[in-house]
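task queued by scheduler; priority normal; single chain, no ligands, no partner chains; default sampling; output format set to structure tokens
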Amino acid sequence: MHKILYFVLPVILVLGIYGSQTSYQISDFFKPYNVKNSNNIMTLSIDNSTYKQGQTIYFAGKVNQYDQGAKVHLQIIDPIKNTVSDFRNLLNRAGVFSGSFPIPETFSDGKYIITAYYEGDPNKKQVSLKVNISSTPKGVVYILIPTGASTEGSKINFNPKYVTVSQGTRIFWVNNDNTIHTVISGKINDNGTYDPDNLFKGGFITPGENLAASPKPGNYQYFCKIHPWLVGSLSVKANPVAAKSSANIEIVKPSSGIVTTKSKDSTETKSKTIINAAKSKAGTQPTKSNPGTDTTKSKPITQPTKSNPGTDTAKSKNSTQTTKSSPGTDTAVPLPPTGLATPFVSSSQISISWHAPLNDGGSPITGYKVESSTDGGTKWDTIAANTASKGTWYSNYHLLASTTYTYRVYSINSIGTSSPSNTVSATTKPATVSDPPTGLATPFIASSQISISWHAPLNDGGSPITGYKIESSTDSGTAWNIVAANTATTGTWYSNYHLLASTTYTYRVYSINSNGTSSPSSTVVGTTSKPFPVSDSILLSIWKNDRDLQKLYPEAADGKTENLKQWAASTGWNQNKSLSALIPSGKFPLYLDQALLSIWVERKDLQKLYPEVEQGNVTNLKKWALIQGWNEDKRLSVLVPQGKVPKY
């Protein structure tokens, strides 16, 4: 009766925590829910694959080979790979487990993963299920610009990057970063540069604001013009019956910035009209050139000029274009770019733009050369020898504050490089504090140490970063403690030592330059592991008496025991009685083999139960030792389960 109570009471507690269960779930009979997955160790099932915040996930499963006392370990992982819930579940006498998880209202929309493994499995083989948690209304899609997206090389992009929606869906680009962004359509080149086609474009999207769009059917590529490594694609599928429209996409004005649209259809129609009119007025076609001449002598025909960026159609009536020369005519270097401008200026960055040359010399433009000067054009420095792209935008970073920079650009084709363009000048804004660091992570965690890393801010405020300030919190950010007031280095890594085991720490980092300290970064969370169950003094004592260990782990002489602990947890428990606290559940250490055989020889009841031992088969005898032998013979005391007291 007492044994039954020991089993039932914990199960009642678990049911109280994780919700009420149906009768089949707590019986020996197991029937999985509709959504399920399994391996050779266990089965995991849930009642649905789609939930909303505030709803409850019900789960049930079964372990195929169950050892008394072991549990199932479950985790819920959010869309950005953070563990948002971690708990264990008891099994009944048939290896069946079940429970429920109420989804907090604070969970963000996205795809989550539920993982589970049986703690009695030495390989911890996982079973996982994917669920979608979303409160987003039907017909609405959110594309996030995450924190840290403005840092080149961070691998952070629009999320999701690829989106397919049906016609009529309203799309919101939400700026969760700490700097401004844009969304502009255009072709993305392999080297990360772009050629904007301006089918749709929005003004600056400031932090916390959004850009709303109601696209027409079509396939679009888009990017951020300020941070052109941010790229995405959008596919809008037409409904079976849809009204025709002259525009491919309709942009709804965001809370910040002006949005313009451009229609392919309307542009094409206007262009054809102008061309037809031109042909009608000209009345003749260009004549073929005479042999040996370099150029033709045809009459000019009116053609639409290339449109300026942002305009819908060409507006020129009188521009002329001669026909191409006859075969054998040489190509030439292109004309220089035109229309240089500086659309974005900060204290440490200037972005310049230009128009492609009107004449490419008969060979396509393959890139641009960009030069800058800080003395008004007396001395020039090459900042991009060849952009290797047709893109007409370049951002110059890490500049000095309150400094005037002059720029000029050259066109490049297969023949060579053009003469320089006209210049454009801009003065960086006065120095300020830098932007905060981005991309915080915890690359190393132990029982008493957490190491954090981050990315340096792209905008240093016009003054070099000289260090970082680091704070930590043990109450999820209510109270903050200064871990390092100033690291006095540009390094982006810090290790926090002498921490409490099994404790969650939250960190944030500030950038420091000569103008002061930035605002805090976003936070990162790390939980220290459980304390190692064997003291360093015991480990070092074993090490000192074992020459093999001394050769393998010489660093232990200096008190560095991390590698020695790994040996103890993976192998040492099987060799040394002093490491009995590390014996995995269901495992029988080698050093007890002789003691176990002695017990069998002394006890006739064991000889009757396990006669196969005489032939050297001790498998069942070891199971007896693990299940009840520890409670009957002191020689098996290292097998006593945690929290149990043997009757001897």
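post-processing summary
- The domain at 338-427 is CATH 2.60.40.10 (Immunoglobulin-like).
- The two ends are 21 Å apart (CA to CA).
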